[in-house]
Every structure is written in C-alpha cells, then in structure tokens.
Amino acid sequence: MSESPLAHVTTLAFDIFGTVLDLTGSMTPPARKFLERKGAAVKVEAFWDQWRARQRIEQYQDSLMLLGHSGYLETCRRALLYCLRLNGIPFTDAEVREVMQAWQALSPYADAAEGLRRLKSRYKLVALSNGEQPYLEHLEKERMRFGFDALISVQRAGFFKPHPAVYRTGATVLGVEPHQIMMVAAHAFDIMGARACGYRGAYVNRYRLPYEESPHRPDIEVRDFVELASALGA
Fold first, then answer.
1. Angle (CA) 134 225 182, round 5°
2. Domain 23-105 is in which class?
3. Where are the alpha helices (DSSP H) in 65-181?
4. 159: which residues sit within 8 A by CB, 6+ positions away?
5. Are 162 and 135 in contact, with CB atoms under 8 Å apart?
6. Cα angle at 28 between 23 and 29, to 5 degrees?
7. What residues contact 96, with CB distance under 8 A and at least 6 apart?
8. According to CATH, where is 1.10.150.240 located in the chain?
C-alpha cells in the first residue's frame, strides 16, 4: 500500500479572512446600520456580496498591475467606495472611516476554537493571510487568541493570493518543503494556488460552493474545522 501524501504534512497554513474569521457575521450588522441610516435601497446582503466580489477584483488588479502591494485594508476601502458609488449612496470620508473601523472587530467562526485546539495537538498552525502584518497581529491578540505558531502576511511576497510568490514565501519563512504544508481555506482559489505550488490542500467549504474547474484539487473537503480535525485524526 502506498503512503498517503498527507503523512508528510507537519504544518497547517490557515487562510484567515472568511476561513477562520466570520466576515459576513461580523461585517453585515454595522453595514446594515450604515445603509439604513443613509436610506439606501440596496439590501445589506446584496451590498456585502458586491463588496466582497469587488475587493477580490481590487486585489487581483493590484497584483497583476504591479501596484506595489496596496495592502488588504486598502483594497477593502477601495471596494467599499466602488460599491457605494455603484448603488448611488452619498458618503463622506468620515463615514467611510466609520464603516472601515468594523474590520478591526472581526469574530471567529464558532467551530474555530475547538477545531484549532484539536489540530494544535498534532500540527504546527500558522496563518498565511492577505492581511497586513500589524493587522494580523492585532486580530490574533484582540479577536482570535488561538496561539498560532506564526503569522505570515502576503506583504512579505508583495502579492495577494493566489500568486505563487505567496506560497513559496510561506514555505521559505517556515523553513519546510511545500509538500509538508497543508493550506486550509474556505476559498477554492487559495487551495488552487497552494496546490499548484506543491502544498497539500484542505477545502473548508463553509459556503457550500462547488470547487473551481481545475486540476489542482484539494486532498480533503470538509464543512468546518471540527470536521477537519476528525478527518486528520486530531
């Protein structure tokens, strides 16, 4: 019987935004209050979907156009401005700063604490995130407190995921071979990028979405971190 490729995995690299932290649950309440105060016609669910989709475009443009890596929060801000204009919602700079402040108070998914606690008994746990380094440190200290062994920002690579430089930089920083790392993410593009660079992959399908049409498939697909821990024998 051939050995499982997962037998060599020593490190789990976690996406943070949308995988560990519940962006929808954290951001829609303050966004709803803002939209209601402005008398906006758009529903918060639709607005949030627009915001997240536009943020990804902003990140892709940043990497493709070599803009010097603007940073995660800046792409969030640019996407917010786009969506406000898209929906004809007037705004001031102070109002934008108020809405953006909600990004500082993100909360984890309910399953994160138990799942990470179990996984920590067997693997080294690191964050490999699009967030800026100081922002990740703030979130770990004030909002997560999961005791990650390392917090690695894409700032080190100078590109957003899924650029190959992110995953190569992650392996270099950790001092391990790519096949010893499993990327854990709720976004298929993150798993695709990692698998293309030699990582293993666990797709945490929180959003019940089909995987991308790609040869770079996840090794495991689960619904949450508790199920992931069980799948990995932790």
1. 70
2. mainly alpha
3. 72-86, 93-100, 112-120, 133-139, 164-174
4. 63, 69, 165, 166
5. no
6. 120
7. 77, 80, 81, 84
8. 23-105
Cis (ω within 30 of 0) for the bond into 29? no
Q: Which fold has domain 5-22+108-231?
A: Rossmann fold (3.40.50)
CA distances from 229 to 2, 93, 200, 205 (A): 23, 44, 15, 14
Fill in the amino acid letter for 148.
F
Beta strands in 27-161 (DSSP E): 124-129, 150-153
Q: Which residue has the higher pLDDT, 5 or 134?
A: 134
pLDDT at 1: 59
- Residue 14 pLDDT more than 90? yes
Please identify which residue in the block is written with the tokens 């803002």: 34
Q: Are 187 and 129 in contact (CB under 8 A)?
A: no
Range(s) for CATH 3.40.50.1000 in the chain? 5-22+108-231
Taking every pair of C-alpha atoms in the chain, what is the biggest distance, in angstroms?
64
Label residue 3 by pLDDT band (50, 70, 90): confident
Query: How far is the C-alpha of 167 from the C-alpha of 194, rounded, in Å?
Result: 6
